[in-house]
Amino acid sequence: MATQAAKPKKVKGAPVAKKVSAKRGRAGPDVASANRDELLELYREMLLIRRFEEKAGQMYGMGLIGGFCHLYVGQEAVVVGMQASIAEGDSVITSYRDHGHMLACGMEAKGVMAELTGRRGGYSRGKGGSMHMFSQEKGFFGGHGIVGAQVPLGTGLAFAHKYKDEAAVCLTYLGDGAVNQGQVYESFNMAALWKLPVIYVIENNKYGMGTSIERASARTDLYHRGQAYGIPGIQVDGMDVLAVREAGRKVVAHARAGKGPQILEMLTYRYRGHSMSDPAKSRAKEEVQKMRQERDPIERLRGALLDNKVTDEASLKEMDRSVKEIVSEAAEFAQNSPEPDVSELFTDIYAEA
Amino acid sequence: MPIQILMPALSPTMTEGKLAKWLKQTGEPVAAGDTIAEIETDKATMEVEAVDEGILGQQLVAEGTEGVPVNTPIALLLEEGEDESALANVDSVAAAPAPAAVAAPATPVAAAPTAAPVVAETEWDGPTQTQTVREALRDAMAEEMRRNPDVFLMGEEVAEYQGAYKISQGLLEEFGAKRVIDTPITEQGFAGIGVGAAFYGLRPIVEFMTFNFAMQAIDQIINSAAKTRYMSGGQVSSPIVFRGPNGAAARVAAQHSQCYASWYAHIPGLKVVAPWSAADAKGLLKAAIRDPNPVIFLENEVLYGQSFEVPQGDDWIVPIGKAKIVRPGRDVTIATFSISVGRALEAAEALAQEGIEAEVIDLRSLRPLDAETVINSVKRTNRLVTVEEGWPTAGIGAELAALMMAHAFDWLDAPVTRVCGADVPMPYAANLERLALPNTADIAAAAKQVCYAD
Hints:
The structure holds 2 protein chains of 2 kinds.
Chain A: E1 17-19, H1 36-61, H2 76-83, E2 91-94, H3 99-104, H4 109-116, E3 140-143, H5 150-163, E4 170-175, H6 182-193, E5 198-204, E6 207-208, E7 211-212, H7 213-216, E8 233-237, H8 241-256, E9 262-267, H9 285-295, H10 297-307, H11 313-336
Parallel strand pairs in A: 1-8, 2-3, 2-4, 4-5, 5-9, 8-9
Antiparallel strand pairs in A: 6-7
Helix pairs in contact in A: 1-2, 1-10, 1-11, 2-8, 4-11, 5-6
Chain B: E1 3-6, E2 16-22, E3 29-30, E4 35-40, E5 45-49, E6 54-59, E7 68-69, E8 73-78, E9 128-132, H1 133-147, E10 151-155, H2 171-175, E11 180-182, H3 187-199, E12 203-207, H4 218-226, H5 228-231, E13 241-245, H6 261-265, E14 271-273, H7 278-290, E15 295-299, E16 307-311, E17 324-327, E18 332-336, H8 340-353, E19 358-362, E20 365-367, H9 371-381, E21 384-387, H10 396-407, E22 417-419, H11 430-436, H12 440-450
Parallel strand pairs in B: 10-11, 10-12, 12-13, 13-15, 14-15, 18-19, 18-21, 21-22
Antiparallel strand pairs in B: 1-8, 2-4, 2-7, 3-6, 4-5, 6-8, 9-16, 14-20, 17-19
Helix pairs in contact in B: 1-7, 3-4, 8-12
């Protein structure tokens, strides 16, 4: 069933493999679990990612963005909910579907968009592109283009947190495609062996490019993938930002307390193709439409905010307007920022010894 | 003003496409994210999604039209509060300005401009001691670990076993399990963990039991360690050392006997060193650990037990990027590295008996490669022989030959000649293995050949 979260199954012998979200299916997000400011901020952040990505898609269409461009539309609740569960000093790393992660980390839309257009004002000064942006200030360590390679890297960030006796954790994101890479399990093993403070957030959007999870994975629920290493796993409704936040807070506290790694499987969905040049023909149109209509993380929270009178239509409209303005300014900036100086071709290869 | 919807580019190579089908008709409401049309690109049929919301005011391109250039307006969208009368205000042929064509900067034929010139180490006039390469490497790590608490060693059997080749002897005892870490047999995993830790500012030394096993980890070495500084616009560095034995040992056959020097020397973002003497092994390893970049440190199993004079004390550093003339001579230059330096010196000794004075250069660093020292030598000797255990194709010798063509062409009195490992997977049989590796006689013969003395 495409529109329902898979039933979590208790795996025999699994440490703690379960689903925490009580709210499932068509039930709205549990707005009682957050205060008004938090709710509005979560909504605003998801909306910013949505509008940013739509704009990026449009600019790609205009030829202003080149190469590969992987949009996050549909998955916003995952990164926004997880970001709300960590603290300053924690680190974040992901693969190439990364614009949402950067915005959620607090990186500026202008700098991200200008990197997409390959301009001087981009986070990597135009030398990284869509898949390669970083902000040490915001704890964001990329932006990596090789499927699964960010998993040992994130495990290494967690290793460094522990080595430096920091109470920090690393959120390491990976997709349902990456979970079949060998280095993921090499990382799981060492993270568990050394009790590293790392949370593996598996964004299960059901498709690795055009291959559905049913055609790629012997078992389609992924929260128990750490079972062999004693890593607890939880399956979460990744289309419900409050459920994500609740699960995130639990596992982050666990990892921060020195109890080792955790796995969160986020059941989510990407509305667009794998990248801008993927026609996404491998999925039925109805499947995507149904997901959008019934499970959309932004619409569901919006409905809950209105139903529970947390806010009103006019306020949300105003928020929408202000988000659009940020995105328009970013798009403007990204087109007006100059290309990198030609001298940049040979800079940043080596650090000065 | 109505919003123009433009013909989108939906692949990195698309310049025009066919408007296959309209999915929204004039007068229909459109929400952001709605599919409004189907476009056939050069690769596939794609759906066009609306970015803005409004009412589809007018279709400007008819269904079925082929060859519609990217960025041509295909429809007009009426915004909130607008009606059809707004359409009259639109100059329907005004396409958005196409992005200016980018003139790619010409790729220079020569290598990238080099950074500040590297200054060679000053001659050591302090006390020395006789040490094996093994002991020198251990001391280098111990001294740097005492100096900087962020330096740690990880790898297979480095701690309790004291190193598969006993290089890390005593380190666990002195620095404890936090800083001398036994890993499982999982090269890609621990190489990546090392790089991640380096991103965060730690200074990992990652030992590969041999570089043959580093092929499991080469994606992390190249894509993560070498390229991240550039891809991040200089924000994130990888101060990490990957070290271990490289090249042939003895009788361990093809999968355990390969020289990776040219593989890593090929990669911008990496530094690559391959010392011969114990003094250089110590001084270069200390430099590598202090270097803010990823350094590939290629050792040689056969050299581990060989003894040399090594400067005493913590201050002995050999800069990366500087070759060393280990035997001066006027007749022919022999440029080589690692274990072949010893063979070249033996060959030079034999050549001297025949009246040929060979200059032997230990390259020590392969990236950056100290071309200047080799070029200056060739300008005096007018002849160059290169020696390496690696295969000839695209090897270090090939690189040196190209550099001589570019910078010493007028001084050459003979073609540059390469002495390399045989172009075969390493055989096991003792006689065949001997034939596959460059030996002293091969080097002497090549030197005589370029001197036209045979």
